[in-house]
Amino acid sequence: MSGYRLKSCVWEITLACCFSCAYCGSCGGKARENELTTDECVDVARQLAELGCRRVSMIGGEVFMRADWQTIVKSLTGRGIAVCIITNGYTLSDKILQALKDCRIESVAVSLDGPADVHDAFRQTGSYDRAIKAIEALTSNGIPTSVISALRSDNYKRLPELYETLKKYPIFAWQLQACSPMGNAKKNGVQVAFDAGYVMDFIVENRMTAPFSMGIADNIGYYTENEPVLRGRPGECFTGCGAGITSIGIDSVGNVRGCESMYDERFIEGNLRQRSLADIWNDENTFAYNRRFKLSMLTGKCAGCPVGMLCAGGCRSYNYFTNDGKLYENVLCARQK
Fold first, then answer.
1. CA–CA separation, 156 vs 84, rounded Å?
2. Adjacent-strand bridge partners of 9
3. Is the dihedral of CA 58, 106, 244, 280 positive or negative?
């Protein structure tokens, strides 16, 4: 046995999507050929449960574009695994709302990247209004709802405007994450650089009066004096990349990565059609970039950092895609001046 305990999984059940967003890291739009069948997905759920996984974030593409999504969710919730679905909200209907209740979903996260002009520019006209209607429908039906915003050069200073809108709705959380230059974002030359300090200050200034939890994702930070109040839960601090340590990613054809944001063939540790999840997870040679991490691996400004052993250089995926493949050097660290 590896000695590592699997706690969470991000599972992309399809690449099919009603959008083809200009910054989509997975280049969603059309389903892949030979995506996992319903039976295979149910078996993946069994394997996740047997390894002790307690939470799955289900993504696409667009989850609701897969006809059997409810069966897959039930195969997880029926085994005591909490499921959050991340959606663009565009296809939400009364039928889907009822299905979400029936399968005992833990929560739904709606992607919303800014005011209408910002949000629609990278998706399609009317997508902002549909996302807002989805938030209204979800919350009015008693389904715990959060919002996720992907930050880029063009939208991070529009956070105060989006905040004023979100305060109108009974969401429970708002997560801010850095848009990574991978997939469509890289192909389209989307400018992703932004001032992490501005974003962190925004949270600090508003978190005490906000009607919902506010926090930054693991690809923004790290270890400033405000670290204990920035992750959405009081006292919670970033403790290093969890890819292959406590979490995994699974794509729609069964490839396993440490994190589903590590969207490069280099990080595929195996495929569930050839190997069991337990075999991949417990293999002493998998996820080596994290499981064999040493302080001496840190490079650039991360080398010699006094919190290097805690932070371990930040988010592996964001490092890789923003820094010419370097895994142990973070360009968005707020400690670096």
1. 25
2. 56, 248
3. negative
Of 321, 62, 330, the C-alpha closest to 180 is 321
Please, what is the angle between helix 94-102 and helix 127-140, to 10°? 40
The residue behind tokens 């590590």 is: 262
* Cα-only R_g, the chain: 19
pLDDT band at 337, cuts 50/70/90?
Answer: low
Provide the pairing of β-strand 55-59 with 82-87: parallel
Residue 62: closest CA among 101, 95, 96, 94: 96
| Backbone torsions φ then ψ of 64, nearest 5 degrees | -75, -5
In this predicted structure, what is the pLDDT of residue 147? Answer: 98
Residue reference for tokens 């990080």: 267
Show the DSSP H helices in the chain as ranges.
Answer: 38-50, 69-77, 94-102, 116-121, 127-140, 159-166, 184-187, 196-206, 277-282, 288-291, 308-311, 316-322
Containing H/E element for 86? strand 82-87
What are the residues whose beta carbons fall under 8 Å from the beta carbon of 33, sequence distance 6 or more?
Answer: none
Distance CA 175, CA 147 (A): 6
Average pLDDT, the chain: 95
pLDDT tens string 155-183 = 999 999 999 999 999 999 999 999 999 99
Task: List the structure tokens of 75.
Answer: 């195969």
Q: How far apart are CA 270 and CA 258, in angstroms?
A: 11
Q: What is the pTM of this model?
A: 0.95
- Tally of residues, the chain: 337
Residue 45 sits at φ, ψ, to 5 deg, of -60, -45
Q: What is the pLDDT of residues 78-89, one digit of tens each?
A: 999 999 999 999
pLDDT digits (tens, 9 = 90+) for 292-315: 999 999 999 899 899 999 999 999
Nearest C-alpha neighbor of 55 from the set 317, 240, 247: 247
